[in-house]
Amino acid sequence: MIRCAPFARIAAPLAALAVLTGVALHSSRPAPAAANPSTAIPARGLVAARKFKLEQSYAFAWRAEQPRVTCGWMLVLDVDPAVVAPRDELEHVLYVGEQTAERINPGHLAARCIVIVPDSPDGRGWPATDLDQQVAWFGDRALPEQVDESAVRAERDSADAAGILPFSKAEVAAALARGGQSLALHDRSELQVEAAHWVLQFAPAESEFARGLLAPPVH
Amino acid sequence: MRPTIAAMLRSSSSLDSPARWTAIGAVALALVSMAAAQTATLFPGGLVTSQRTTDIALSITDVELAGNPNAAFPFFDHVQTFHEGEPIYISIDTKRYPLLVGKSTRVFVTADRDSTEWHDDPALVDVRGAVQFASWTSGSVAANTFVLDSGALSGISGDHVGRGYDVVLDVDGDQELGFGDFIDGREDTAGMWVVHDTGALGPHAVTEVQYSGGAFLGQDLFYPSDIASLRTLPLVVVSHGNGHDYRWYDHIGRHLASNGAIVMSHQNDTVPGPESASVTTIANTEYLLANLSTIASGALRTHVDQHHIVWIGHSRGGEGVVRAYRKLKDGTYVSPEFTAHDIALIVCMAPTTQLAPALSDPGSVPIAIFYGGADTDVSSAPFMSTSKPLAMFERAQGDKFALYLHGVGHADWHNGGGPCWCAGPSLIGASATHDVLRGYLRALVGLYAQQDAGAREFTSRSYQDFHPPSIAANVVVASEFLDARATSPHVIDDFESQAALQTSSSGGAVAMDVLVPVEGDLTDFDNSLVYSPGTPMNGMVLGRRDESPHGLVFEWDPAQPRFVEFQVLPNQGNVRDLDSLSLRAAQGTRHPQTDLLDADLNFSVTLRDQAGHTATVQSAEYASIVRTYGRMGVGAGAGWINEFCTLRIPLEAFVAPPSRVNLGKVRAIRLDFGASYGAARGRLGIDDIEFAPRRTP
Fold this sequence. Notes:
The complex is a heterodimer.
Chain A: H1 12-20, E1 41-42, E2 45-59, E3 68-78, H2 81-84, E4 91-96, E5 99-100, E6 102-103, E7 112-118, E8 136-142, H3 149-161, H4 169-179, E9 183-185, H5 188-202, H6 207-213
Parallel strand pairs in A: 2-9
Antiparallel strand pairs in A: 1-8, 2-3, 3-7, 4-5, 4-8, 6-7
Helix pairs in contact in A: 5-6
Chain B: H1 5-10, H2 18-42, E1 60-62, E2 66-69, E3 76-78, E4 81-83, E5 88-91, E6 104-111, H3 115-120, E7 132-135, E8 145-149, E9 162-170, E10 181-184, E11 192-195, E12 206-212, E13 218-224, E14 233-239, H4 250-258, E15 262-266, H5 274-290, E16 304-314, H6 316-330, E17 343-349, E18 367-372, H7 391-395, E19 400-405, H8 429-449, H9 457-460, E20 477-482, E21 490-493, E22 510-512, E23 515-521, E24 550-556, E25 562-567, E26 578-587, H10 592-597, E27 604-609, E28 614-618, E29 645-650, E30 666-673, E31 682-693
Parallel strand pairs in B: 1-10, 4-11, 14-15, 14-16, 16-17, 17-18, 18-19
Antiparallel strand pairs in B: 2-3, 2-5, 5-8, 6-7, 6-9, 9-10, 9-11, 12-13, 13-15, 19-20, 21-31, 22-25, 23-24, 24-31, 25-30, 26-29, 26-31, 27-28, 27-30
């Protein structure tokens, strides 16, 4: 099973460990030059954070490699509504660490996005990476389903060049406190329900959207 | 004593009597020989009808009767479809049927029957409950045109788009279809259709249910409340666009469900892109089909026609449904529930073109594209390769239909409110856009998912000629239609080969004296909609950077008339059994000639046969080549993208009296431009010059 690449710039021993655990993302394209730094737009803040793990994995459609997701982070980010105003032409892609982030709600009405960020599992199946020192930003306009590892690296270089600051320890601590207990769920469907409830809680301006996600089950 | 023919005719009242048929045959052969001789003299090209001079069935003449009078040549257009409440006329060319001259025949409007039903029951019963006679003369078409119905005929027939009727001239007055009679509609399609307003709600109350089958399986379902008493119904699946909501398409759901369809709009994974959207289109279709026993408490079970599925997509969802079809067709994905063959129709509303052309190629599935000229999201701006909705029309090989609406924005297709993503003059808003959408979706679903032949002319006739009556008069539309390539039109020039101006793609010669002609890619990627001599394809937005549909552009001015003439080679010149001459034309946006004309454009179209006989028809009688939408931006001036319109002229028009054109030996199509022929000036792009086939249900 292809696992997610670690989304943190981890220390050398941990990087070596990640390699040893068989990270298998690959790109068929040579690494492009760093994107224009001026296009990297920081998220405005981390509001809430919560770990999750799943019994049943799913394919992450927000990466070209479509890695299988078994764990990760559910986050609430403050965002510039103009950046996330939905459109059908190419949109800015959201990145957290070295991963694309799935936006659950549009975000333009609430100026907040609930996002899913896959991660590699630790020994107990929980996300292996800490949020401390992670960077969240919007990169170039693209289709997330076409973003591969090399594109993520280029976007990360762009974010670094733009001087986008990582989450602070205090910010992360507060977010974890707001986020509550880690989630052990069955599958992506249950994760979606939890994310929808977070839309109601943290982005009430988009409650109508959340209610669409919370349609009653058939079975 | 050998019986006389008269005695044999009197010997039986049944058409099945052998003696009667022997007598009929003898008389028929004699009269037909006389008629054929006259016909050959007057109409060397033969009749347009299905008459065969040696066939006993000629005792009954199959002929187009119903239609509309026309102030200009050919003075009458035979059509098949009429709106409920509109008058219907009949006309016949007595020069082609001289046997009618001097006769007063009773006219019957009957319920539609096919040939077997007519054979089994030839009795003529007029559904109007009226008695009408028509007196035929040797005079003009106008003198031989009569009102058949003032608008009283019903267009209601269950869940069908309309009601079919046959029209009979009872020449022998025996109130049976038989020897000497004329009929419009003996074969397996009605002679004419009266259709009700397809934009109006249908007869069924609608039940709506929202539910979820899991992640990206949220569904909003609409179905007739009385579904338990109905047969199988087509399944319509709606895939929304990015930033849209699956509950924003109730205007489509309620409308089509009230007219006898099952509609399911689903949560669509569009943010990653159209590829992901295609996955959810398929997954949601599969989920519904696999769970009919539980969804809506099993109300749909045994009522879903799984072999007539319609996919409707908006924006990324619009590209997603095409991608989904392509995956099924190519075998990239194999569904356990349905195949590509079960997809009867794809509808794209302002689709993106974010994937490579081969990935989003509709192939031979029927496709309809709806697109708005005021769209500021998927805008067709010349610098955006991913924003070329009309590329879907170019790629398609099946029946393809497109409506380009002035004043319609990207969000106007859904019912979720919010910003319209629109810019430009004369914005019509979501409500008026939905009027267009509902009227045409009903017709399209009827035609392709329910084999409703009465719906065909909604696509094959230009918008200006025929459209749902509930659409406001101020809505400006450029409409296009091309028959599936598999129907074997005679393609004279599609400009996809033979790059030289002097040679058509069919290998014939092309002559022209129009100004600055250029044959090439119908694509404009110079980042501006401003015309310059260096950008002859200005405003052409029919493909991404990695695809190249071709056409011809040119212009003329008031100084002198100009022409373009296409040779029709002998192997393509017999068009007797075909339906119409078709071509696509678009005015050139922001071109000086276009701006000076500042109006819809028209020109003359002439057919010439081997003997040199010609017949000329004005394009404006059949379609408007609309003035480009006056939106500003992307450079100086006003005018958005070039808007192709299909001009489709019935071949019958070219043999109306006094024409002597032989449709069996057509040798040239000539387009004439200038004040004597139409617009005194203009800038035009043309494509797809062809003779279109007759279509059966």
